[in-house]
Amino acid sequence: MLDNCKSALERWGGVSEIIDKWLEERQQLLVDYCMLSDNVQVMDNVSCGNQLQPLCQILVDYVSAGHFEIYDQLVKEGKELNDKEGLRTAGELYKIIDSTTEYILDFNDKYQEIDDLDAIENDLSRLGEVLATRFESEDKMIEVLHFAHQDQLEQNA
Q1: How far apart (Å, rounded) are the C-alpha atoms in residues 123 and 156?
Q2: Predicted confidence (pLDDT) per residue in 86-139, tens digit
Q3: Phi, psi at residue 111, to the nearest 5°?
Q4: Cα 135 to chain center, whole Å?
Q5: CA-CA distance, 87 to 89, in Å (whole number)?
């Protein structure tokens, strides 16, 4: 019953906090990625592995949070606010995002063990391209399913 009394802003204002935490995790992911990419040519396998394993962990955490928390919240908000166009666009964006997930998980699986780093430079380069595509699509999804509703949420408050 109390849920019915909450305004849209109260219901969906917390989504901004979840997104903010997720984007902070993205920032750390980018820092870790750049540090490794910038230094991979001069590192020995042990040093590379010491930076690679935390990168893989944050990659999996970030992807998981997106799939199992963020996207669900965004779609739920779009449905609640009856944003058919936003949901349609988000569906198209989700297909792009989902296509990047396989490469990211394959990268993680490949580098769980750091005994074969022969292709790491090429794999990191490709990972950077995949992440750029993913981040762009995620940002658009946030825009069409969350930030596009800010005025509507404030009016309903």
Answers
A1: 48
A2: 999 999 999 999 999 999 999 999 998 887 898 999 999 999 999 999 999 999
A3: -105, 20
A4: 6
A5: 5
Nearest to 21 by CA among 55, 57, 61: 61
Domain made up of 11-156: CATH architecture: Up-down Bundle (1.20)
**CA-CA distance, 41 to 39, in Å (whole number)?**
6
Q: What span, in angstroms and rounded, lies between the C-alpha atoms of 37 and 50?
A: 13
Separation CA 66–CA 47 (nearest Å): 29
Q: What region does 82 belong to: left with phi over 0, alpha with psi -120 to 50, or beta?
A: left
For residue 11, the one-letter residue type is R
pLDDT given for residue 57 in this prediction: 96
Residue 63's nearest CA partner among 10, 140, 127, 145 is 127
User: Considering only CA atoms, which of 23, 25, 36, 26 is closest in space to residue 111?
Assistant: 36
Cβ count near 116 (within 10 Å): 10
